[in-house]
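Why do we bother with a discrete structure alphabet at all? Because it lets us treat a fold like text: something you can write down, compare, and reason about line by line. To make this less abstract, here is a complete entry for ATPase. Read it the way you would read a sentence in a foreign language you are learning: slowly, and without expecting to understand everything at once.
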Amino acid sequence: MQDSTPYAVGIDVGGTKTHLRAFADGAGVVDHVRSSTGWRPHDARAAADWLADLIAVALPSSPRPSALAVGGHACETARQCAGIRAALQERLGVPALVVGDAELLVPAAGLEKGVGLVAGTGSVAVGRLPGGEAVQVGGWGAVLGDEGGAAGLVREAA
């Protein structure tokens, strides 16, 4: 008899790699890492298809996810993330939450409140206002800013 315990699935789609973890009854049951090649967050349908294909490869055929949370690289606006969420929910038929990948920093640290700061290839600071509204500073790429990222630091040093 197959296990019918539903999976809660979390996916961190970064600029380089994607990490999927699935949990059942509070225990991790799948831990899958792959390249983020092909991730197209500016096309909601393509992003949803990419995520659904990832889930199909990473998870056993049964059971399917009961809920899904995604932090997506280059998911830059609430409207863009909502578009991916809607396409994903339509494709998989399960509740989904989609946010920018930098928004995963605070909960990944085990915190309910805080500011997440990325200072690497690019830079961005993200957080939430007391009412839950997301706020972001930076993260627009080297052409428009990213003063705390690699390109900005080299530009300032030169």
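What the structure line is telling us, in plain words: The two ends are 65 Å apart (CA to CA). Strands lie at 7-13, 17-24, 27-35, 65-72, 96-100, 116-119, 123-128, 134-138.
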